[in-house]
Amino acid sequence: MAFHMKTLFGCVSAISLICIVFYGMNNLPSTARCPTVERKITSTRNLKFDRADILSAGERKADQTEYRFVNISSQPENLPSLKSQKPPKHQKKQTCSPTNHVLFLKTHKTGSSTITNILNRYGDKKNLTFVLPRQKQLFTFLWPARFRVSYSAPLYNFGANILCNHARFNKRPMNYIFPKVHSRYITILRDPVSQYESVFNFMHFAKPLGFKDEEDPLGTFLKFPPPFQEIKPLMKTTLALNLVRNPMLFDLGLDFRYFQNVTAVKRYINFLDKEFDLVMILEHFDESLLLLKRLLCWELKDILYFKLNERQDKQKQKVIDKEVREDIKSWNKADFMLYQYFYRTFWKKVKAQGPSFQKELRVFKRRKEALSRACLQKGNFLDEAYTGVYVKGYSLKKNVPMRKRKLCENMMKNEISYVKYFREKINNQVKKIEEPDEYLDDPKNDWEVASDLEHDPILSGVGSADAAPVVPKPDSLQGGETKP
């Protein structure tokens, strides 16, 4: 008996020693029975150090308090640490998904027409729904009025994916159509000196303002600008004159009353910084587009472009006198503050992208130049931007392959052409939902085509000997002359 007890004690000790080696002291069961029967141990190499996985439901519940105080640093050396473990496949970092809800606040003379073309092409390719102006003859959302929901054409419950035509910023209705939770708000700015010169000359401000006959209309206007109360009535007949001062901030929604209030301007700039996910800079257009591509999780091919709506060389003021430049800055101080602020934030965003940004930028420029060589003829060509207003255009090479021709043609298409195209596209969608042609006008819509339920009128006298005679057919239906 003593021999058997010694033998049994030895076996228990051996089993306990094996359990200590495999499980450590913290996991040693209270009995001498090793738990290999209840949970199979594969190998320490494949063992995941997650007590919630290896314990049964009952053991998990009983072990909750102890688990909170597990010291990871005290793990046996042959077990992998939590930090060094690779996460399961389903926990790997997800790649971003393309954003298909974009509000682009289109500012004047800032390269915004090119951005609009990019958005139009992307939306058309993905069959997205565009928010379009309600008035069929207009291509803006009743600019210069602030945007309102009622200014947009009915969406027919199709949803809203992209807005990219001229609209003056208005937070509440825009946030309603494009909820911030899943939409991206973008816009673009330009150096206020070159932007204002472009606006002043492209919009022909000199004529309504009375400076048309001056040798230097822009410079003379800035030396002797009329008071606001004289310019205001002119704005009703020449809507573009709403851009006569701080045009970029006007497009972005700031009222005239705040143009000379530095505190209000600073607050509004901070407000815009919270509203917009990306403010691009024309002077660094390719960098801006690459930031846009990364923000929206698009592909490089989605942001390829040809410059659109560029003024003819003869319409550009070759040299802006230093004094005129300073006067432009002084007249548009609020716009200058706006541009300086977002110029700084722009480069912070670029820097945050890391070294891969510059590498991708070089690839983008090479692809853009290669596409231009493949698509475009060399020469001077014009395109009608608006009625009677011509800008630089392009002509397509005759030998462009068919698979590339459609892309090249779309990259040359201006916003007016796209608005017309999208209107027709929505109309066709609506027709598919609506019933076919009105039945009342259908010549085949005739109940005589079948006789199953033919009308059988009850005429008095029919089927009875003593009944009254059959009702005679009215004279009006006889087809002959009426009896006297």
From TrEMBL:
One of its GO terms (biological process) is glycolipid biosynthetic process. One of its GO terms (molecular function) is galactosylceramide sulfotransferase activity. It is a single-pass type II membrane protein. Keywords: Glycoprotein, Golgi apparatus, Membrane, Signal-anchor, Transferase, Transmembrane, Transmembrane helix. One of its GO terms (cellular component) is Golgi membrane. Its main location: Golgi. It is found in: Golgi apparatus membrane. Pfam families: Gal-3-0_sulfotr (PF06990). InterPro entries: Gal-3-0_sulfotransfrase (IPR009729), P-loop_NTPase (IPR027417). It comes from the Eukaryota. The chain crosses the membrane at residues 7-25. Signal peptide: none annotated. Residues 457-484 are annotated as: Disordered. Belongs to the galactose-3-O-sulfotransferase family. This is Sulfotransferase domain-containing protein. It comes from Pocillopora damicornis.
